[in-house]
Every structure is written in structure tokens, then in C-alpha cells.
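User: Fold both of these, please.

Assistant: Here is the first one.
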Amino acid sequence: MTMPASECFDVSVDGHIAHIKLNRPEKRNAMIRAFWSELPAIIHHIDTEADARVIVLSSTGPHFTSGLDVSAFGGAEISPASGGGEDAEAQRHARLTAGEAFYQNVLGMQASFSALETCRIPVLAAIQGGCIGGGVDLTTACDMRYCTEDAFFTIYETKIGMTADVGTFPRITKLLPEGLVRELAYTGRRIHAAEAKDVGLVNRVYADHASMLEGVMEIAREIAANAPLAVAGCKRIINYARDHTTADTLDYIAIWNASMLQTDEIMEAMTAAAEKRPGNFAPLPKKRTIGAA
């Protein structure tokens, strides 16, 4: 299976690390229509083919992303009202089905970002400049976030009369205190890098884009040096713990290790550490496509 062609991203894989770069800096990496199908297709490919052990998501130009490009959708997916030059009967049908069409479109966009969360591989976001609107939805679906000193985040949808609906609120409320989330959402104000670090929205702040990429890639290499099955298990259990009680999670991790724990991988990790060499770990198995033989 070859990597999907992309209008919005450059993708490379090197040393067990997949690097996905937003590549429309002249448009501030706005999320056009193609973005929403290309991103999950790329993530699905990397996860299904087990092409990498870590994914780094970065961007180009002065800003990480300006969020959803409303103009690219012609407004139809953003506002339930539609009609244009259609005849009266077609306009009536459009009005009657607009709510369902809008709902289905938002579900599809939500799924695009959920692909980052549900894939087996850790996703590290490297953020420079503005992370605006849909950028917050995108980066909160990643496992970790890192940024430059000039970075800022804003739930900008409020400023343009919308309520963020592609993933910000169910995720950011697990990352930040509720009172702060409410302030950021109600005001739409920017939270800059230093504050984002202080409140735990980002793990580290770097002086500039180059040093950030160098630092994030070093973290990615450290993750990639560990047993992929163990790292995938960590991601699965952490996500489960976030959404379930302690008792449920304790039971789940016991069942998980009862079926997934690999003594050979433990011995290889210990031996490799003693011999000061990279571990010779089993790769993640490829995921079977439904209907495949």
C-alpha cells in the first residue's frame, strides 16, 4: 500500500519516525476541503502498515495553522442555510435536510482528528506561531504538544460567532482546569507559549522553529527506541484511563497485560540496556483491513 497523495501535507518516514508537515504556508496552512480527507488517510496508512513507531506533526511558515478555511467550503458545511440559485422545490429540500447534512459533515471532520487519537502510534505536535481555531482541535488530539516561544493558541471560533465543534472541548477539558477552559472559550483570547507551558497545554517551549524540530525529533527517537508493542499499550491504557474510572482501568490493564505482555520483549529490553545497544524489538503488526483475506 503506497502513501496517499496529498495536497496539504508532505510526508516522510526515516528511522521509524513518520514526519507529517502541513505544507501550505502561503495560506497560513488553512484547512481546506482536501485537508479533512487527506489527514486521516495518511494516519490510517502509517498505522495500518506499521510504517513508523512515532509520528511528528509539524508545519511550515510563520504559523502552524489559521484553522478552517471557510471560503473553501462555500459556507454550505458551516451554515445550515443554503439555496443559492436552486429552484423552489430544491431549496425546500435543502432546508429540510440541512441540519442532518451539517451534522454528518461535522462528524466526518471530528473523525479526521480522532484518527490521531485512535491510531496505535504516539503523535507529537510541533507548533510555531498561531495555532488558531481548528488548530486547537487538531493539536489537542495529539499525544503531546511542543511549541516555539512565539506560539499562541486561541479558540477563535467564538470570535466569529461559532462554537468550536471538531474536538476542542472534550479534549482540552482533560488537559486544562475547567475555569481556564471557560475563560479561553468565552473570550477567544490568545494563550501564549509561556502560559501554555505553565498550565500544561504544551510539554516544552523552544526558542525557534529549528530548535523545536530538533528537540521534538530527539524525543521521537527516544520513544522509537522502545518496544513498539509496549508504547502502543501505554497509549491505549492512558486514553482508556482518561475516559474511565480507576477501578475500570485497573481491570482493563490487568486484562491487557494478561493477553499482550511479551516476556521476550522484556528480556530483550533488559539485555539491550545491559549491552548498551538498540533493542531488537518486534514491530507492530500490520492492521488487517476489513474484508481482506
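And the second sequence with its predicted structure:
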Amino acid sequence: MREKIGFIGLGIMGQPMAQNLLRAGFPLTVFNRTRSKCQPLVAAGATEASSPAELAQRSDVIITVVSDTPDVEHVLFAPHGVWDGLAPGKVVIDMSTISADATVTFAEKLREKGCQMLDAPISGGQRGAVQGTLTIMVGGDRPTFERCRSIFEALGERIVYLGESGCGQRAKMVNQVIAALNIVAMTEGLHLARKAGLDLERVLEVVSSGAAGSWMLTHLGPKVLEGDFSPGFMIKLQQKDLRLVLEWIEHIGDDLPGARLAYSLFTEAVTKGFGEQGTQGLINIYE
């Protein structure tokens, strides 16, 4: 029998993810602060809840995909939040990108009600969410992960269990450092090619096929050439993730100069008004 799922957060990523769960046959209840975002899912067969608490009461597994650590905390523990609708045996899966330390704290609190929490941040952008090809990095209780595997399989292609609570978020921090530095490299390179008067399509073709090739060049490079800065993942969210990285490395007494550089550049992009653009819009700080 399919688990009854509650889904909170129907933004760029959450909306197509919830649609994929419906297509996979999971009974689905949805909640979003902007209620209009629930309507396409209701039309497809989901039920809308009036609060996170009601959603939790109706569900076996509650999934959250929101922006930042305070948002997850609010959804879970504010009045009429998920906490108020929990009963022993229910599972919370947070697929946002948030603080690993906060994740551990949230998981410990949820265990007070006999509930498990998995941190399962995602990578793959809007395209991956739509196509159901996300990479999912999971931390938490191993038997709970196995219980929820079919849910993850409806959302992604590569699902990796990383270890105890917080490990999924720490792996996502590693992902975001590498991704951000690739974006910096891609945008600076294409800016340099443009300044040199080169044919950008030919430059993109040749560098993508050599040692400089990357996911960012292949998927975001063409968008830069087209002047398409619509978001698959927003600059302001990449900047937020890099802030989390810097908070983490400060806590463990390390330093990552590349991450600090990337954070400063993404912060500049937000300051200049490009925060709502896709990450390929970083090139606009040069131009």
C-alpha cells in the first residue's frame, strides 16, 4: 500500500516534484503559503490542506521543500505547524538545503514524538525536478531511508544514503561549493570570450568537449548565449547555500578561499538586483 504523502513548498522545484509523486500513484496532500500554487496539483488529484498541521494529520510521510533554515523551522514547529499534526511512526523528509546542525536538532526533537526525520537535499535544478532525474543525498535513520526509497525513486535517478542525520546536508554543501565554482568559471570564461570578440557558439562547442567541459557549460552555457536568465536555480538561493557553507567551515575551523570568492561574487549579483535570475545570470556582474 502506498504511503500517504504530504508536500509543503510548491516553488520552482517543489511543484514538479509533487506532480511526479502524483504520477507515481502516491496519495498526496499539499500546502503552500501562496494557495494558488496548490491549484494545479488539486486539479491533478491532490488534496489541499489548510495548514501544515492538517497536512501532517492526513499523511504518513511529510516532505518539505522550502528556502532556508528558518523556513523549515517555522513549517515544522510554529503554531499549526507539522509538529501539531504528528503521531508516532510518521516521517518528515526535508529536501530543502539548510544548516546541518539545525537538521540534527530538528531530528532530535521529532524523535520526542516517535517520528523520524531524513535530510534529503537535492541537486539537478528545475530540469531534474521536472524529469524526475534529481540526485538525492540522504542522511538519517537507515531503516527509515529504506522505507522511503520508493518515494525517492519517484523523484530522482541517483539516490545515495550518506549516513546519520545531517550527512545529507553536509554532502549538499560539498556539491554547492563545486557547483558555484564551476558557475564562476563558466561565466568568467564566456565573458572573456565575448570581450575577445570570439564566436561564442564555437567557443562553447570546443571548450565543452575538452578538459574544461562541465555540466554547467553544457546546460547553462547555451542559456548565456541566448540571453536566457530564467531560473532553474536562483542566484539568491545559491548565495544562501554558500552562506551556509561558510558558516559550516567556520564552525569546524577550516577555510575555503574558493567558496569565499564565490560567495562574494554571488552576493554582488544579489546586491545588483540579479538575485531572481538563474545562476547563469552571474555573468551580468561582469557586463
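The chain has 13 helices and nine strands.
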